[in-house]
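hey so u asked for the seq, here:
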Amino acid sequence: MNTKIPYCFLLALLALCIAVPGCKLHSESVRFSPELKPRQADIGQGKTLGLSVADTRPDKQVGIVGDPKIEAITVTAEEGSPSLVYQQTAEALTKLGFKVEPASDATERSLRIEIRELQYESLKRPFKYDAKAKVLVGAVARSGSGRYERTYETEETGEYGTPPNQSTISKSINGLLSAAIDDVLADKQLLDVLTK
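ran it, structure tokens below
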């Protein structure tokens, strides 16, 4: 028996073959862009504060998306100086009443923000992707009255029907980064060191 395959069926099959590779996972890179929610206050009373921000993560890979046994992509974050983190933190400190400048050895009063850890993992399960994200931010405050250091941790979990894209991953990481830095700027003990 000789059966002919309709031409439109072949076209549909060809279109499907072209479309499916387009759904493949691609490595993602996250750019630091926190959005802080600073409060307006005169805590700093116009005192000069040296600010520095550093990415101190030992491993620049943030995590993975997919199934590690079959197909997975890596998620990384930008390396080098996280300038938007510095800019947002400086603006928030200015609203708190400090006169912010880049930190130097001669700075009497300083705050160092360290991005110590970023983790993002979205693993494939039957019918969904389980996502988990965590951010650790360290702060070191110094002034004539002493030194204060603390680590601030924020995390979240979620579920997605498809692999999360760069926008979703970036929103999650930067949301947690923002929350951690907001916690730094709301820490009464840290502010006490910087204002004495």
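The radius of gyration is 23 Å. The chain is about 30% helix and 40% strand.
lmk if thats what u needed
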